[in-house]
Amino acid sequence: MVFLAESPNDNFLKHALALEYLKLGKDEEALQRFQANLDTDPAYVPTYYHFGKLLERLGQEPKAIAVYEQGMQAARNAGDNHAFSELRSVYEELTF
């Protein structure tokens, strides 16, 4: 938390904190952190995968699909073919 206090706009740190909440079983906190990260910077591609998987696990498949769609667009815009492929794979698992 010290690093985040020193760099509150650091997307990597915010993403890492959300992942820590997941590990602790604090899904609501993780959801809020993932959403806040994307609200602040929708181009931060790593958040989309984990946010979508959490939504899936919580039974919110339509929201997960929307997150994966947004993530695929963000990955495409960033030229991140690896992330695009991962997001497309989980998207297709839900939609086909």
CATH architecture heading:
Alpha Horseshoe
CATH topology term: Serine Threonine Protein Phosphatase 5, Tetratricopeptide repeat
- In N-to-C order, the SSE pattern is HHHHHH
Overall pLDDT level: 93
Q: Main β-sheet, in a few words?
A: none
Morphology? globular
Number of strands: 0
Helix content: over 70%
| Low confidence ranges | none
Describe the structure concisely for a colleague.
The protein is an all-alpha fold and 96 residues long.
Question: Can you tell me about this structure?
Answer:
The model has no long low-confidence stretch (mean pLDDT 93). The chain has one domain: Alpha Horseshoe (Serine Threonine Protein Phosphatase 5, Tetratricopeptide repeat), CATH 1.25.40.10. It is globular, with a radius of gyration of 13 Å. It is mainly alpha-helical. The N and C termini lie far apart (40 Å). The protein has helices spanning 2-6, 11-23, 27-40, 46-57, 61-78, 81-95. The protein has 6 helices and no strands.
Characteristic terms for this protein:
96 residues, single chain, Serine Threonine Protein Phosphatase 5, Tetratricopeptide repeat, mainly alpha
SSE blueprint:
Blueprint lengths: L1 H5 L4 H13 L3 H14 L5 H12 L3 H18 L2 H15 L1
Helix pairs in contact: 2-3, 3-4, 4-5, 4-6, 5-6
